[in-house]
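Render this sequence as a predicted structure.
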Amino acid sequence: LLSLCQKGFRQFLSQKGVLLLFESESSTYTYLLADTNTKEAVIIDPVLETIDRDLKLIKELGLSLTVAVNTHCHADHITSTGLMKQRVAGLKSAISKFSGATADIHLTEGDNIPFGRHSLTVKETPGHTDGCITLVTGDQSMAFTGDALLIRGCGRTDFQQGCAKKLYHSVHEKIFTLPDECLIYPAHDYLGQTVSTVGEERKYNPRLTKSMEEFVEIMNNLNLPKPKKIGMKDSVQSHSAQCKLARQKLSSLQHGNCLNASRN
């Protein structure tokens, strides 16, 4: 398995062969995974501003890109999936069924995204948004957690159907149940951190080691500014992942979702 993470520089960081590149404006990680024998590849959370860089790298490596998947509807950047589909023959877009976004493939719990001999398994991890998913490699050695679980943190829950109770349940039931040594690759990091493990986050994450009540209190008092691109509409994004449902429900569904989560 070849795993490449798009950062602003190239550096192998582990025996798993993770190569990191970075989109600096939104501090977003994009991941490219490929079967080194068949050259089939998938890309996770591609960003519009780095499409030329990403496609150039894919061409240089001789890969055949089959699926571009978003872990959720992003409020801080525009996905390049729509434009990428125009430039890569046969490429399909994928996103959660519950995202409210347009895509070729709508994903649900337990679905597999194959590439060569390998595949990614979908785990639904709502809370940051209703349509958040975590993608886990077949051997459970790596999990691409989107904004659900960050390194020593987690995604915010104050917009886009966000619900702290849902997020707490998602992380504890879907991610923290993976093996301790499973590597965690998030969609963002703002401190230059690149990878963690399930065991580390279960033990040291300052938010998610708390009780659910304490976690909800923390998340309800972050008082963060809204992302710069949360209201942006773009024809490129509409091809594959225009988050019209997410944008329509920025506030109206938040309380209802939390009520449902509290009953679980």
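Summary. The first strand starts at residue 2 and ends at 6. The helical segments are 51-60, 81-87, 164-175, 198-204, 212-219, 235-238, 244-248, 254-263.
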